[in-house]
Amino acid sequence: MSLLPILEYPHPRLRTVARPVDVDQLHDPAFQRLLDDMFETMYEAPGIGLAATQVDTHQRFMVIDVTEGREQPLAFINPVIRERSVDLRLHQEGCLSIPGVFADVTRPDGIVVEALDRHGKPFELRVDGLLATCVQHEVDHLDGKLFIDHLSALKRDRAIKKLDKLRKGRD
Ligand code: NI
């Protein structure tokens, strides 16, 4: 396995709308290896989710593990959010593509998501809380959206300034 480079804001390809995964691809060892590399990259970062878009692959799949013990790796192929609750949940989100920047985002608390697992088997999850937030954040990536898009212009400017400042410190 190997660590993958992650595209960082404002890389234009983070704005790509990903195309569906062709199910035949799931039998390709290279695709399975890419999924393993995405899990490794996410765990190493560390992060709780990583969308293919972030590793410059513009197809609809993503990996997630919100558990502290990293015991629940979930791969979503062609995920679709079927239902969203009226109840909302606020979470201080971050993103491996916008490192070091965190901001409150409000999203539906509960969702129903359908997807294929890494072997092409369909599944449906009815989830709420952190996992629901994370699924929505990652599906946004597949649509070319970032969590800062959900902020007011003022808060977004503040987040981008923070990112610039952190980058200057890094050089
Ligand atoms: Ni992200």
UniProtKB/TrEMBL annotation:
Its cofactor is Fe(2+). The keyword Glycoprotein does not apply. One of its GO terms (molecular function) is peptide deformylase activity. InterPro entries: Peptide_deformylase (IPR023635), Peptide_deformylase_sf (IPR036821). Keywords: Hydrolase, Iron, Metal-binding, Protein biosynthesis. Pfam families: Pep_deformylase (PF01327). The active site is at E138. It catalyses: N-terminal N-formyl-L-methionyl-[peptide] + H2O = N-terminal L-methionyl-[peptide] + formate. Removes the formyl group from the N-terminal Met of newly synthesized proteins. Requires at least a dipeptide for an efficient rate of reaction. N-terminal L-methionine is a prerequisite for activity but the enzyme has broad specificity at other positions. Belongs to the polypeptide deformylase family. This is Peptide deformylase. It comes from Luteimonas rhizosphaericola.
